[in-house]
Protein backbone atom coordinates (compact mmCIF):
# COMPACT_ATOMS: atom_id res chain seq x y z
CA UNK A 1 0.00 0.00 0.00
CA UNK A 2 1.28 3.49 -0.75
CA UNK A 3 2.44 5.64 2.16
CA UNK A 4 -0.42 8.11 1.55
CA UNK A 5 -3.05 5.34 1.76
CA UNK A 6 -1.44 3.87 4.88
CA UNK A 7 -1.58 7.21 6.65
CA UNK A 8 -5.17 7.84 5.61
CA UNK A 9 -6.24 4.44 6.98
CA UNK A 10 -4.41 5.20 10.21
CA UNK A 11 -6.20 8.55 10.56
CA UNK A 12 -9.62 6.93 10.07
CA UNK A 13 -8.84 4.12 12.53
CA UNK A 14 -7.41 6.42 15.21
CA UNK A 15 -10.02 9.17 14.97
CA UNK A 16 -13.38 7.38 14.90
CA UNK A 17 -16.58 9.37 14.34
CA UNK A 18 -14.79 12.46 13.01
CA UNK A 19 -16.00 12.50 9.38
CA UNK A 20 -15.10 16.14 8.68
CA UNK A 21 -11.55 15.53 9.89
CA UNK A 22 -11.26 12.46 7.66
CA UNK A 23 -12.60 14.46 4.71
CA UNK A 24 -10.09 17.30 5.17
CA UNK A 25 -7.18 14.85 5.55
CA UNK A 26 -8.27 12.83 2.53
CA UNK A 27 -8.38 15.89 0.26
CA UNK A 28 -4.92 17.01 1.32
CA UNK A 29 -3.32 13.55 1.15
CA UNK A 30 -4.82 12.80 -2.27
CA UNK A 31 -3.33 16.02 -3.60
CA UNK A 32 0.05 15.26 -2.12
CA UNK A 33 0.53 11.96 -3.95
CA UNK A 34 2.88 13.37 -6.63
CA UNK A 35 5.00 15.10 -3.96
CA UNK A 36 5.16 12.10 -1.64
CA UNK A 37 5.92 9.68 -4.47
CA UNK A 38 9.08 11.64 -5.30
CA UNK A 39 10.43 11.00 -1.75
CA UNK A 40 8.26 8.22 -0.37
CA UNK A 41 10.91 6.32 1.61
CA UNK A 42 12.33 9.45 3.22
CA UNK A 43 8.91 10.75 4.30
CA UNK A 44 7.86 7.31 5.55
CA UNK A 45 11.02 6.96 7.64
CA UNK A 46 10.47 10.41 9.13
CA UNK A 47 6.77 9.57 9.74
CA UNK A 48 6.16 13.03 8.37
CA UNK A 49 2.54 12.48 7.38
CA UNK A 50 1.67 10.75 10.66
CA UNK A 51 3.07 13.78 12.47
CA UNK A 52 1.27 16.22 10.20
CA UNK A 53 -2.09 14.55 10.72
CA UNK A 54 -1.71 14.37 14.53
CA UNK A 55 -2.23 17.60 16.47
CA UNK A 56 0.68 18.65 18.66
CA UNK A 57 -1.85 19.10 21.44
CA UNK A 58 -5.65 19.09 21.94
CA UNK A 59 -7.10 20.78 24.99
CA UNK A 60 -10.66 19.93 26.10
CA UNK A 61 -12.24 21.78 28.97
CA UNK A 62 -15.44 22.49 30.88
CA UNK A 63 -17.05 25.93 30.47
CA UNK A 64 -19.59 26.57 33.24
CA UNK A 65 -21.52 29.85 33.29
CA UNK A 66 -24.75 31.23 34.77
CA UNK A 67 -27.64 32.24 32.51
CA UNK A 68 -30.05 35.16 33.07
CA UNK A 69 -32.44 32.95 35.04
CA UNK A 70 -29.73 31.96 37.50
CA UNK A 71 -29.40 28.47 35.99
CA UNK A 72 -25.87 27.06 35.63
CA UNK A 73 -25.07 26.01 32.06
CA UNK A 74 -22.14 23.83 30.96
CA UNK A 75 -20.52 23.84 27.54
CA UNK A 76 -17.54 22.00 26.05
CA UNK A 77 -14.46 24.09 25.27
CA UNK A 78 -11.75 23.10 22.75
CA UNK A 79 -8.39 24.35 21.56
CA UNK A 80 -6.48 22.17 19.10
CA UNK A 81 -2.86 23.30 18.66
CA UNK A 82 -2.16 21.51 15.42
CA UNK A 83 1.24 22.53 14.13
CA UNK A 84 3.80 25.12 15.23
CA UNK A 85 6.57 24.38 12.71
CA UNK A 86 6.44 27.81 11.07
CA UNK A 87 5.11 30.02 13.88
CA UNK A 88 2.88 30.26 16.94
CA UNK A 89 -0.48 28.49 16.63
CA UNK A 90 -3.01 30.75 14.92
CA UNK A 91 -6.66 30.26 14.10
CA UNK A 92 -10.18 31.18 15.10
CA UNK A 93 -12.64 30.17 17.80
CA UNK A 94 -15.97 28.81 16.57
CA UNK A 95 -19.07 29.17 18.74
CA UNK A 96 -21.87 27.04 17.31
CA UNK A 97 -23.97 24.13 18.63
CA UNK A 98 -22.50 21.83 15.95
CA UNK A 99 -18.95 22.17 17.34
CA UNK A 100 -17.25 18.95 18.46
CA UNK A 101 -13.66 17.70 18.53
CA UNK A 102 -13.78 16.38 14.95
CA UNK A 103 -14.95 19.74 13.58
CA UNK A 104 -12.21 21.61 15.44
CA UNK A 105 -9.58 19.11 14.22
CA UNK A 106 -10.69 19.50 10.59
CA UNK A 107 -10.50 23.27 10.92
CA UNK A 108 -7.13 23.16 12.70
CA UNK A 109 -5.68 20.83 10.06
CA UNK A 110 -6.85 23.10 7.21
CA UNK A 111 -5.47 26.10 9.06
CA UNK A 112 -1.91 24.70 9.02
CA UNK A 113 -1.79 24.71 5.20
CA UNK A 114 -3.74 27.96 4.85
CA UNK A 115 -1.43 29.81 7.21
CA UNK A 116 1.57 28.46 5.35
CA UNK A 117 0.14 29.77 2.05
CA UNK A 118 -0.17 33.31 3.45
CA UNK A 119 3.63 33.58 3.56
CA UNK A 120 3.44 34.93 7.13
CA UNK A 121 5.07 33.14 10.11
CA UNK A 122 2.07 31.50 11.78
CA UNK A 123 1.37 27.88 12.71
CA UNK A 124 -2.10 26.33 12.74
CA UNK A 125 -4.70 25.90 15.46
CA UNK A 126 -8.43 26.17 16.06
CA UNK A 127 -10.80 26.18 18.98
CA UNK A 128 -14.32 26.88 20.05
CA UNK A 129 -17.32 25.58 21.89
CA UNK A 130 -20.80 24.16 21.38
CA UNK A 131 -22.12 27.34 23.04
CA UNK A 132 -24.73 29.05 20.84
CA UNK A 133 -24.52 32.87 21.05
CA UNK A 134 -27.82 33.17 19.16
CA UNK A 135 -30.63 34.47 21.34
CA UNK A 136 -28.32 35.03 24.34
CA UNK A 137 -28.17 38.37 26.12
CA UNK A 138 -24.93 40.36 26.08
CA UNK A 139 -24.46 39.48 29.75
CA UNK A 140 -24.81 35.75 29.02
CA UNK A 141 -22.29 36.00 26.17
CA UNK A 142 -19.90 37.83 28.51
CA UNK A 143 -20.34 35.21 31.23
CA UNK A 144 -19.57 32.44 28.76
CA UNK A 145 -16.54 34.25 27.27
CA UNK A 146 -15.09 35.01 30.71
CA UNK A 147 -15.44 31.39 31.77
CA UNK A 148 -13.97 30.14 28.48
CA UNK A 149 -10.92 32.40 28.85
CA UNK A 150 -10.47 31.52 32.52
CA UNK A 151 -9.42 28.08 31.29
CA UNK A 152 -7.90 29.02 27.92
CA UNK A 153 -5.54 31.76 29.19
CA UNK A 154 -2.93 29.27 30.44
CA UNK A 155 -2.55 27.79 26.94
CA UNK A 156 -2.34 30.96 24.80
CA UNK A 157 -0.15 34.06 24.48
CA UNK A 158 1.11 36.53 21.89
CA UNK A 159 4.08 34.24 21.01
CA UNK A 160 2.36 30.95 21.86
CA UNK A 161 -1.13 30.71 20.39
CA UNK A 162 -3.25 33.58 19.08
CA UNK A 163 -6.99 32.85 18.63
CA UNK A 164 -9.42 35.01 16.62
CA UNK A 165 -12.99 35.01 15.34
CA UNK A 166 -14.90 32.42 13.30
CA UNK A 167 -18.57 31.41 13.12
CA UNK A 168 -20.38 32.96 16.10
CA UNK A 169 -17.29 34.81 17.32
CA UNK A 170 -17.17 38.45 16.28
CA UNK A 171 -16.06 41.77 17.75
CA UNK A 172 -18.28 41.47 20.84
CA UNK A 173 -16.94 38.05 21.83
CA UNK A 174 -13.29 38.97 21.12
CA UNK A 175 -13.70 42.02 23.39
CA UNK A 176 -15.00 39.95 26.32
CA UNK A 177 -12.29 37.31 25.81
CA UNK A 178 -9.55 39.95 25.65
CA UNK A 179 -10.74 41.73 28.78
CA UNK A 180 -10.67 38.49 30.78
CA UNK A 181 -7.21 37.49 29.48
CA UNK A 182 -5.83 40.88 30.51
CA UNK A 183 -7.50 40.69 33.90
CA UNK A 184 -6.13 37.23 34.70
CA UNK A 185 -2.60 37.63 33.36
CA UNK A 186 -2.07 41.36 33.82
CA UNK A 187 -0.61 41.42 30.29
CA UNK A 188 -1.63 43.84 27.56
CA UNK A 189 -0.48 41.87 24.55
CA UNK A 190 -1.68 40.73 21.15
CA UNK A 191 -3.08 37.43 22.39
CA UNK A 192 -6.14 37.66 20.13
CA UNK A 193 -6.74 39.18 16.71
CA UNK A 194 -9.89 40.77 15.41
CA UNK A 195 -9.70 43.15 18.37
CA UNK A 196 -11.56 46.46 18.43
CA UNK A 197 -9.76 49.45 16.95
CA UNK A 198 -9.53 51.16 20.36
CA UNK A 199 -7.51 48.33 21.95
CA UNK A 200 -5.05 47.03 19.38
CA UNK A 201 -7.19 45.84 16.48
CA UNK A 202 -6.14 46.32 12.86
CA UNK A 203 -8.01 48.37 10.32
CA UNK A 204 -9.37 46.14 7.52
CA UNK A 205 -9.37 42.93 9.65
CA UNK A 206 -13.19 42.97 9.69
CA UNK A 207 -13.32 43.19 5.91
CA UNK A 208 -10.26 41.03 5.21
CA UNK A 209 -11.66 37.55 4.56
CA UNK A 210 -14.36 38.74 2.19
CA UNK A 211 -12.13 41.28 0.47
CA UNK A 212 -9.32 38.75 0.13
CA UNK A 213 -11.74 36.24 -1.39
CA UNK A 214 -12.62 38.74 -4.11
CA UNK A 215 -8.99 39.71 -4.71
CA UNK A 216 -7.98 36.10 -5.37
CA UNK A 217 -11.13 35.41 -7.41
CA UNK A 218 -10.34 38.42 -9.59
CA UNK A 219 -6.70 37.38 -9.98
CA UNK A 220 -7.59 33.78 -10.85
CA UNK A 221 -10.16 34.90 -13.45
CA UNK A 222 -7.69 37.41 -14.90
CA UNK A 223 -5.03 34.73 -15.31
CA UNK A 224 -7.61 32.75 -17.31
CA UNK A 225 -8.45 35.76 -19.47
CA UNK A 226 -11.78 36.57 -17.77
CA UNK A 227 -12.94 39.84 -16.16
CA UNK A 228 -14.83 39.87 -12.87
CA UNK A 229 -16.57 43.15 -13.63
CA UNK A 230 -20.05 42.61 -15.06
CA UNK A 231 -20.39 39.08 -13.66
CA UNK A 232 -23.34 37.81 -11.61
CA UNK A 233 -22.31 36.37 -8.25
CA UNK A 234 -24.17 34.01 -5.90
CA UNK A 235 -23.03 34.21 -2.28
CA UNK A 236 -24.13 31.96 0.59
CA UNK A 237 -23.98 33.02 4.23
CA UNK A 238 -24.79 36.41 5.66
CA UNK A 239 -22.07 36.71 8.27
CA UNK A 240 -18.67 38.37 8.40
CA UNK A 241 -17.22 36.66 5.32
CA UNK A 242 -20.36 36.90 3.16
CA UNK A 243 -21.07 40.57 3.91
CA UNK A 244 -17.60 41.84 2.98
CA UNK A 245 -17.33 39.49 0.02
CA UNK A 246 -20.57 41.02 -1.28
CA UNK A 247 -19.30 44.54 -0.63
CA UNK A 248 -16.01 44.00 -2.48
CA UNK A 249 -17.71 42.14 -5.35
CA UNK A 250 -19.96 45.14 -5.90
CA UNK A 251 -17.02 47.55 -5.63
CA UNK A 252 -15.25 45.55 -8.34
CA UNK A 253 -18.24 45.86 -10.66
CA UNK A 254 -19.93 42.48 -10.19
CA UNK A 255 -23.57 42.02 -9.19
CA UNK A 256 -24.34 39.92 -6.09
CA UNK A 257 -27.81 38.41 -6.29
CA UNK A 258 -27.99 36.10 -3.24
CA UNK A 259 -27.13 35.72 0.44
CA UNK A 260 -28.33 33.04 2.88
CA UNK A 261 -28.50 32.13 6.54
CA UNK A 262 -29.24 28.91 8.35
CA UNK A 263 -32.99 29.19 7.72
CA UNK A 264 -33.26 30.42 4.14
CA UNK A 265 -31.92 32.58 1.33
CA UNK A 266 -32.55 35.83 -0.48
CA UNK A 267 -32.70 36.34 -4.23
CA UNK A 268 -32.35 40.02 -5.05
CA UNK A 269 -32.10 40.36 -8.84
CA UNK A 270 -31.15 44.03 -8.69
CA UNK A 271 -28.15 43.35 -6.50
CA UNK A 272 -27.89 42.91 -2.72
CA UNK A 273 -28.27 46.16 -0.77
CA UNK A 274 -25.15 45.98 1.42
CA UNK A 275 -26.17 48.75 3.84
CA UNK A 276 -29.49 47.01 4.50
CA UNK A 277 -27.79 43.61 4.89
CA UNK A 278 -25.36 45.06 7.43
CA UNK A 279 -28.18 46.67 9.36
CA UNK A 280 -30.16 43.40 9.51
CA UNK A 281 -27.20 41.17 10.40
CA UNK A 282 -24.60 43.33 12.18
CA UNK A 283 -26.85 45.76 14.04
CA UNK A 284 -30.19 44.03 14.55
CA UNK A 285 -28.78 40.42 14.53
CA UNK A 286 -32.07 39.48 12.80
CA UNK A 287 -33.18 36.88 10.22
CA UNK A 288 -33.00 37.48 6.46
CA UNK A 289 -36.79 37.72 6.38
CA UNK A 290 -36.23 41.26 7.72
CA UNK A 291 -34.13 42.02 4.63
CA UNK A 292 -36.93 40.83 2.34
CA UNK A 293 -39.50 42.91 4.24
CA UNK A 294 -37.49 46.07 3.59
CA UNK A 295 -36.80 45.40 -0.10
CA UNK A 296 -39.76 44.87 -2.40
CA UNK A 297 -37.87 43.17 -5.27
CA UNK A 298 -36.11 40.67 -3.06
CA UNK A 299 -37.58 37.20 -2.63
CA UNK A 300 -37.02 35.08 0.50
CA UNK A 301 -36.91 31.29 0.11
CA UNK A 302 -37.05 28.90 3.07
CA UNK A 303 -34.36 26.22 3.33
CA UNK A 304 -31.56 25.29 0.92
CA UNK A 305 -31.26 26.33 -2.72
CA UNK A 306 -29.06 29.41 -2.83
CA UNK A 307 -26.92 27.89 -5.61
CA UNK A 308 -29.86 27.10 -7.89
CA UNK A 309 -29.92 30.66 -9.27
CA UNK A 310 -28.21 31.53 -12.53
CA UNK A 311 -24.76 32.96 -11.81
CA UNK A 312 -21.26 33.22 -13.27
CA UNK A 313 -19.40 32.96 -9.99
CA UNK A 314 -20.43 31.17 -6.79
CA UNK A 315 -18.86 32.04 -3.44
CA UNK A 316 -19.93 29.69 -0.61
CA UNK A 317 -19.32 31.69 2.60
CA UNK A 318 -21.43 29.95 5.30
CA UNK A 319 -20.17 26.60 6.57
CA UNK A 320 -18.73 23.14 5.77
CA UNK A 321 -20.41 20.84 3.24
CA UNK A 322 -23.13 23.34 2.31
CA UNK A 323 -22.45 23.10 -1.46
CA UNK A 324 -23.48 19.56 -2.37
CA UNK A 325 -23.64 17.51 -5.55
CA UNK A 326 -27.14 18.75 -6.49
CA UNK A 327 -25.92 22.35 -6.11
CA UNK A 328 -22.85 21.62 -8.23
CA UNK A 329 -25.08 20.15 -10.95
CA UNK A 330 -27.33 23.21 -10.88
CA UNK A 331 -24.33 25.55 -11.08
CA UNK A 332 -22.88 23.71 -14.08
CA UNK A 333 -26.28 23.56 -15.80
CA UNK A 334 -26.62 27.33 -15.29
CA UNK A 335 -23.24 28.08 -16.85
CA UNK A 336 -21.27 28.96 -13.70
CA UNK A 337 -17.57 29.44 -14.49
CA UNK A 338 -15.96 29.68 -11.07
CA UNK A 339 -16.44 28.58 -7.46
CA UNK A 340 -14.17 30.12 -4.82
CA UNK A 341 -14.58 29.04 -1.21
CA UNK A 342 -15.03 31.80 1.38
CA UNK A 343 -15.95 29.29 4.08
CA UNK A 344 -13.82 26.37 5.26
CA UNK A 345 -14.52 23.21 3.21
CA UNK A 346 -18.01 24.38 2.11
CA UNK A 347 -17.98 22.09 -0.94
CA UNK A 348 -18.38 18.34 -0.50
CA UNK A 349 -15.78 16.13 -2.15
CA UNK A 350 -18.31 14.84 -4.72
CA UNK A 351 -19.40 18.37 -5.59
CA UNK A 352 -15.78 19.52 -5.94
CA UNK A 353 -15.02 16.65 -8.30
CA UNK A 354 -18.15 17.35 -10.36
CA UNK A 355 -17.33 21.05 -10.69
CA UNK A 356 -13.70 20.47 -11.61
CA UNK A 357 -14.45 17.72 -14.10
CA UNK A 358 -16.97 20.04 -15.78
CA UNK A 359 -14.38 22.77 -16.27
CA UNK A 360 -15.45 25.09 -13.46
CA UNK A 361 -12.47 27.00 -11.99
CA UNK A 362 -12.28 26.01 -8.33
CA UNK A 363 -10.23 27.78 -5.65
CA UNK A 364 -10.29 25.93 -2.30
CA UNK A 365 -10.88 27.68 1.03
CA UNK A 366 -7.37 27.29 2.34
CA UNK A 367 -6.24 29.65 -0.43
CA UNK A 368 -9.39 31.65 -1.11
CA UNK A 369 -10.27 32.61 2.47
CA UNK A 370 -6.68 33.05 3.70
CA UNK A 371 -7.02 36.84 3.66
CA UNK A 372 -8.63 36.80 7.11
CA UNK A 373 -5.83 35.02 8.89
CA UNK A 374 -3.22 36.85 6.79
CA UNK A 375 -4.60 40.15 8.07
CA UNK A 376 -4.59 38.69 11.58
CA UNK A 377 -0.85 38.15 11.06
CA UNK A 378 -0.62 41.82 10.04
CA UNK A 379 -2.48 42.71 13.25
CA UNK A 380 0.12 40.71 15.21
CA UNK A 381 2.93 42.62 13.47
CA UNK A 382 1.34 45.97 14.31
CA UNK A 383 0.86 44.90 17.95
CA UNK A 384 4.52 43.86 18.21
CA UNK A 385 5.66 47.18 16.79
CA UNK A 386 3.11 49.10 18.87
CA UNK A 387 1.90 51.07 15.90
CA UNK A 388 -1.01 50.95 13.45
CA UNK A 389 -1.09 51.06 9.70
CA UNK A 390 -3.82 52.90 7.77
CA UNK A 391 -6.71 51.07 6.15
CA UNK A 392 -5.11 51.60 2.74
CA UNK A 393 -1.77 50.16 3.88
CA UNK A 394 -3.35 47.01 5.33
CA UNK A 395 -5.65 46.59 2.33
CA UNK A 396 -2.72 46.93 -0.09
CA UNK A 397 -0.73 44.28 1.82
CA UNK A 398 -3.79 42.00 1.82
CA UNK A 399 -4.17 42.45 -1.92
CA UNK A 400 -0.49 41.56 -2.50
CA UNK A 401 -0.78 38.51 -0.26
CA UNK A 402 -3.83 37.20 -2.17
CA UNK A 403 -2.17 37.75 -5.56
CA UNK A 404 0.92 35.92 -4.31
CA UNK A 405 -1.14 33.03 -2.99
CA UNK A 406 -2.74 32.66 -6.40
CA UNK A 407 0.65 32.77 -8.15
CA UNK A 408 2.07 30.15 -5.79
CA UNK A 409 -0.82 27.70 -6.06
CA UNK A 410 -0.95 28.15 -9.83
CA UNK A 411 2.81 27.52 -10.10
CA UNK A 412 2.70 24.47 -7.80
CA UNK A 413 -0.14 22.94 -9.84
CA UNK A 414 1.90 23.40 -13.02
CA UNK A 415 5.13 22.09 -11.49
CA UNK A 416 3.45 18.88 -10.32
CA UNK A 417 1.74 18.21 -13.65
CA UNK A 418 -1.82 19.28 -12.84
CA UNK A 419 -2.13 22.79 -14.32
CA UNK A 420 -5.33 24.60 -13.33
CA UNK A 421 -5.92 22.23 -10.40
CA UNK A 422 -5.83 24.84 -7.63
CA UNK A 423 -6.85 22.28 -5.00
CA UNK A 424 -3.67 20.33 -5.63
CA UNK A 425 -1.66 23.54 -6.02
CA UNK A 426 -2.84 24.88 -2.65
CA UNK A 427 -2.26 21.63 -0.80
CA UNK A 428 1.19 21.11 -2.31
CA UNK A 429 2.43 24.68 -1.84
CA UNK A 430 1.06 24.81 1.72
CA UNK A 431 2.60 21.43 2.57
CA UNK A 432 6.12 22.03 1.23
CA UNK A 433 6.93 24.96 3.55
CA UNK A 434 5.63 23.20 6.65
CA UNK A 435 7.35 19.92 5.72
CA UNK A 436 10.70 21.65 5.18
CA UNK A 437 10.42 23.44 8.55
CA UNK A 438 9.48 20.21 10.34
CA UNK A 439 12.40 18.33 8.81
CA UNK A 440 14.81 21.10 9.81
CA UNK A 441 13.57 21.00 13.41
CA UNK A 442 14.08 17.26 13.91
CA UNK A 443 11.81 14.74 15.53
CA UNK A 444 9.43 16.91 17.56
P1 LIG B 1 -20.55 34.21 10.90
O1 LIG B 1 -20.96 33.59 12.17
O2 LIG B 1 -20.28 35.67 10.84
O3 LIG B 1 -21.60 33.86 9.74
C1 LIG B 1 -21.92 32.52 9.40
C2 LIG B 1 -23.04 32.56 8.40
O4 LIG B 1 -23.28 31.27 7.86
C3 LIG B 1 -24.35 33.02 9.02
O5 LIG B 1 -25.05 33.76 8.07
C4 LIG B 1 -25.02 31.70 9.33
O6 LIG B 1 -26.43 31.81 9.40
C5 LIG B 1 -24.65 30.91 8.09
N1 LIG B 1 -24.86 29.48 8.29
C6 LIG B 1 -25.71 28.73 7.58
N2 LIG B 1 -25.72 27.47 7.99
C7 LIG B 1 -24.87 27.39 8.98
C8 LIG B 1 -24.47 26.33 9.80
N3 LIG B 1 -24.94 25.08 9.69
N4 LIG B 1 -23.52 26.57 10.72
C9 LIG B 1 -23.05 27.81 10.87
N5 LIG B 1 -23.40 28.87 10.11
C10 LIG B 1 -24.32 28.65 9.18
O7 LIG B 1 -19.23 33.41 10.44
P2 LIG B 1 -18.12 33.86 9.39
O8 LIG B 1 -18.70 34.64 8.28
O9 LIG B 1 -16.98 34.39 10.16
O10 LIG B 1 -17.65 32.42 8.85
C11 LIG B 1 -18.24 31.79 7.70
C12 LIG B 1 -17.29 30.73 7.18
O11 LIG B 1 -16.04 31.34 6.81
C13 LIG B 1 -16.92 29.62 8.16
O12 LIG B 1 -16.70 28.43 7.44
C14 LIG B 1 -15.60 30.11 8.73
O13 LIG B 1 -14.83 29.05 9.25
C15 LIG B 1 -14.97 30.70 7.48
N6 LIG B 1 -13.90 31.66 7.67
C16 LIG B 1 -14.06 32.77 8.45
C17 LIG B 1 -13.03 33.69 8.56
C18 LIG B 1 -13.19 34.95 9.34
O14 LIG B 1 -12.25 35.77 9.34
N7 LIG B 1 -14.31 35.22 9.99
C19 LIG B 1 -11.74 33.48 7.90
C20 LIG B 1 -11.70 32.33 7.04
C21 LIG B 1 -12.74 31.46 6.95
P3 LIG B 1 -27.13 32.02 10.84
O15 LIG B 1 -26.84 33.44 11.21
O16 LIG B 1 -28.56 31.75 10.57
O17 LIG B 1 -26.49 31.06 11.77
O1 LIG C 1 -10.69 30.11 9.36
C1 LIG C 1 -9.99 31.13 9.51
O2 LIG C 1 -8.97 31.32 8.85
C2 LIG C 1 -10.41 32.11 10.51
N1 LIG C 1 -11.48 31.95 11.10
C3 LIG C 1 -9.54 33.30 10.81
C4 LIG C 1 -8.45 32.91 11.77
C5 LIG C 1 -7.60 34.05 12.28
O3 LIG C 1 -6.73 33.73 13.12
O4 LIG C 1 -7.75 35.20 11.87
Q: What does the largest sheet look like?
A: 7 strands, mixed
CATH architecture of the largest domain: 3-Layer(aba) Sandwich
Radius of gyration: 21 Å
Order of helices and strands: HHHHEEEHEHEHHEHEEHHEEHEHEHHHH
Low-confidence residue ranges: none
- Number of distinct helices: 17
**What is the C-level CATH assignment of the largest domain?**
Alpha Beta
Which range best describes the helical content: under 10%, 10-25%, 25-40%, 40-55%, 55-70% or over 70%?
A: 40-55%
CATH superfamily heading of the largest domain: NAD(P)-binding Rossmann-like Domain
**Strand numbers in spatial order across the main sheet:** 9-8-7-6-10-11-12
Write down how many β-strands occur, each being a DSSP E stretch of 2 or more residues: 12
Structural class: alpha/beta
Overall average pLDDT: 98
Global outline:
globular
Amount of beta strand: 15-25%
Distance between the termini: 26 Å
Amino acid sequence: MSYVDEVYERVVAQNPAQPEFHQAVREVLDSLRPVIERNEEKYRKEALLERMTTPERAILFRVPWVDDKGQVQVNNGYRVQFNSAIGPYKGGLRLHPSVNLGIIKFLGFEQVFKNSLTGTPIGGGKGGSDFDPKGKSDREVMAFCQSFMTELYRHVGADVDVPAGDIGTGAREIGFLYGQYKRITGKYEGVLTGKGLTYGGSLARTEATGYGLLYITQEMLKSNGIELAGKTVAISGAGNVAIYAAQKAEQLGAKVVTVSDSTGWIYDPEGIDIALLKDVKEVRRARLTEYAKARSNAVYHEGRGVFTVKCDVALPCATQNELQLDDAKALVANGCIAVCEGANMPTTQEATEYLMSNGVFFVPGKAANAGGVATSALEMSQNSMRLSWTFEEVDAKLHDIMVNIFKNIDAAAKEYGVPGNYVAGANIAGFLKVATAMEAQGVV
